[in-house]
Design a protein that fits this description.
- The complex is a heterodimer.
- By secondary structure, chain A is mainly β.
- In chain A, 0% of the residues lie in helices and 55% in strands.
- Chain A has no helices and eleven strands.
- Chain A is globular, with a radius of gyration of 13 Å.
- Chain B starts with a strand and ends with a strand.
- Classes of the chains: A mainly beta, B mainly beta.
């Protein structure tokens, strides 16, 4: 069974750094692109970027380029999103999702990130 | 970048009724469009891909149609568990993998 397990909720202060994770189970982690999607409180879905864990080829949405870093460690079937300096506007739910032919077919449960002073 | 516009923003219906949701693309995406359902407090779930193919385990009351720039998600006989937010997403020349703004189907 395909599963994506995400790290737990985080509460951070503005300016702090953060790295959240997404671990894949039940499929060949290196054989599929994996995407990250942001959902701000009460809002819709925004694609942040995608990574191909086999060779770490990464593509970013222009809205997120330079704001986050997406990476993967294929040896432990885990992908990451990291921030070097969080802002209050980064408060959101972050989902990872496996991509099959450009569609998100399996989703993680989400990681809630709260940034508040 | 292709923009997806969903309408209406909110659809108020009763159980048993038919729901018709629209997604319009700013330029042709051929049939490369998906629909997702998101219930409160849950991650989205893939319903339809390539405009009209139901994903694994999706009930037959969900159907998708359209091509080019105009797409429709139809829920033929609303069940209580179908009240949720629905998003469309295209994959043309991905990335990007843009979503529409969503349609909320609420109980009337």
């Amino acid at each position: 069974e395909v599963q994506l397990v995400q790290s737990g909720a985080e509460v951070k202060k503005p300016g702090e750094s953060l790295k959240i994770s997404c671990k894949g189970f039940g499929y060949s982690f290196t054989g599929y692109w994996l995407g990250w999607v942001r959902q701000m409180p009460g809002k819709g879905l925004e694609w942040m970027g995608v990574i191909y864990p086999y060779d770490s080829d990464t593509r970013y949405s222009p809205s997120f380029q330079g704001q986050v870093t997406i990476s993967a460690d294929k040896s432990i079937s885990t992908a990451y999103v990291q921030w070097s300096a969080l802002k209050a506007s980064d408060t959101a739910m972050y989902y990872c999702a496996r991509l099959r032919d450009g569609y998100y077919d399996y989703w993680g449960p989400g990681t809630l990130v709260t940034v508040s002073s | 970048e292709i923009v997806l516009t969903q309408s209406p923003a909110t659809l108020s219906l009763s159980p048993g009724e038919r729901a018709t949701l629209s997604c319009r693309a700013s330029q042709s995406v051929t049939s490369q469009l998906a629909w997702y359902q998101q219930k409160p407090g849950q991650a989205p779930r893939l319903l339809i891909y390539d405009a009209s193919n139901r994903a694994t385990g999706i009930p037959a009351r969900f159907s998708g149609s359209g091509s080019g720039t105009d797409f429709t998600l139809t829920i033929s006989n609303l069940e209580p568990e179908d009240f949720a937010v629905y998003y469309c997403q295209h994959r043309t020349n991905w990335p990007p993998l843009t979503f529409g703004g969503g349609t909320k189907v609420e109980i009337k």
